[in-house]
């Protein structure tokens, strides 16, 4: 554990390598990263990476976890040894948290990090003196390059076998109340007796934080309230006192252990960069340029990879068709499963690019500048500068984005952010956009380097953003709540990205996309194939005979096509689509698109896979020598005789998918985060109406 | 700085590059967070930069950069 940006994650990655897994903390849904590391040849330990905090008094939900674990020795994640990473270039502030953790009675080790940066600022720290002053082991490390890991592991071993704990509290609450005319000694010993605690500082945490402690039950909390009243204890006053008291002692410790030759006014190079990146004009210009580059990268640069995979899947499909004996099993494998899988893997390059670029922004420290740039604008819409991170990561996936809103302290700003985040076009929409845009937007280059398709893509993303802001504004008027939003935050110094971190992020996200989205898509593809291949009674045979009977004089290939499509229409899936058709006709969709709409209700990324399955079943003999895109392009509208996917239909579909909340995982996440069905249902309702109405307007206007 | 109401000058009134020493806070709840971040009475801070619309602002506090909204800065009174 440690302050944000102190190097916790670097150290964690150094210790565990790729042996890590992301889970949830029991009881709360905050991401927990844990992994294993070898202390020596025989001892393997579990390392848990806690969220970064500035003190053990949480200001937002994600910070709550740290105190919840440390004040409760029965917690499954309660550490045997706590490694506190301390940023040497900002020693005093980091020592505040360190001294609090130490006082909770956990055996601690200080991992003194970023000494090189401190040295650049002409600050020298004497680790031995620091260790003597605090009475705990101090180990110098460099988490970025992995220096000092062996020493750290030795120290952990030692703390495990014979724990060294400071003999006195850094700040003893029982000794601090005297001056204020408050009997802290009596209060603390009362709490200790009542709850059988052996530590004064833990007792203080019970007093101040019991409302947030998940491990205390209602009567226990009420009893603490009684004690607080009895002694006239004021939490805010006492916390102020504690923080000032700690900083005073930290000042004394630092005077002994630190030689500070830092010239006072010299601006660091981070500050010089800020002058440009936060400039009234250039700041926004650079931000927009970066966004534009991201979309160009996703669409134009990833395209060769996408084409390659698309052709590869088609090739495999054809080969299987040729090699395997004909029959329902082969059809299921190629038209059902493979078509579905193909719909997933094709989008790996784009998703990898997206996560790569977003993690670059986060790693470099630019993301927090974006928050500062946008806070004023976001506030107009009832959001917070911190909402920018959920909104931007919403472009990747709404689920982690909604979880990222926990850092927003104000419940109202947080709720509004949650409600509008799914309007940001997530990576699951990317496949749909890609295919439909490629179908109706010409591949032209304007101004020499801008790809026309890339521009339309960006317009769709901006449409989602605009809708999110408007919706936020409406919710701002509707949701009334009085609580203060804080925007006090540290701007980390700019850093060169750690490529192994970026790599791990990209790998994790691609893996989870393929596994989680992939499983759903394959399952639905199989169900769909069955529904589309079989129909009630002998309806399908009757349809086939009817066609053969009516059209004796046209070329066989056309007959086969007609047969296939009539059979599909008579199947179970066709029936569903037909029932739905009246409702979606005004949007320009036919029953085939209806099937895709229904099946993508659980997860929108299923749409493309479904389309692929439907059109391979619905064409002649399932022989796939064309890609999904080509199939869509040649699909004929039986009423007009022209292509089915006219620009009006394609854009109507695009707009529908920009707004529609078609994602079970998001609904589940919102339910979890807002603790009830009220908000997810409201969200589902407003987004569905928005999607239907806008798609209707687009189709009717463009028709 | 010769200002008529010197006793209510806050960090929000600083100009870019200007330095001041923190004296007290106007909002106790917010001051807790500020204290934790190292804004202690007696600490010297300087206004490092302002976001494009003049809000939020970035302060230089004991060697690092802290950003906050103007209303939050207005609760930090300076000498």
What global shape of chain B is seen?
globular
**Structural class category of chain B:** alpha+beta
The ordered H/E elements of chain B are: EHEEEHE
Number of domains of chain B: 1
For the secondary structure, the number of strands of chain A is 11
Quickly give the structural class of chain A: mainly alpha
Assign the CATH architecture of the domain at 8-161 in chain A: 3-Layer(aba) Sandwich
Total helical elements of chain A: 32
How far do the termini of chain A sit from each other?
A: 59 Å
CATH fourth-tier homologous superfamily of the domain at 8-161 in chain A? P-loop containing nucleotide triphosphate hydrolases
**Strand line-up in the sheet with most strands of chain A:** 1-2-3
Q: State the share of residues found in helices of chain A, binned by percent.
A: 55-70%
Oligomer: heterodimer
Name the average pLDDT of chain A: 81
Word description of this protein:
With 703 residues, chain A is mostly helical. Among the domains of chain A are: 8-161, Rossmann fold; 517-645, no CATH class. A three-stranded antiparallel sheet of chain A has the order 1-2-3, with helices on one face. A three-stranded parallel sheet of chain A has the order 4-5-7, sandwiched between helices. In chain A, helix 21 crosses helix 22 (452-478). Chain A is elongated and about 100 Å long. Chain B contains two helices and five strands; from the N terminus they run βαβββαβ. Chain B has helices at 28-36, 70-73; strands at 19-25, 44-50, 57-61, 64-68, 76-78. Chain B has a five-stranded antiparallel sheet with strand order 4-3-2-1-5. The model of chain B is unreliable at 1-5 (pLDDT under 50). At the A-B interface, helix 3, helix 11, helix 12, helix 17 and strand 11 of A face helix 1, strand 2 and strand 4 of B. Strand 11 (489-491) of chain A pairs antiparallel with strand 4 of chain B, so a sheet runs across the interface. Chain B: This is Ferrous iron transport protein A.
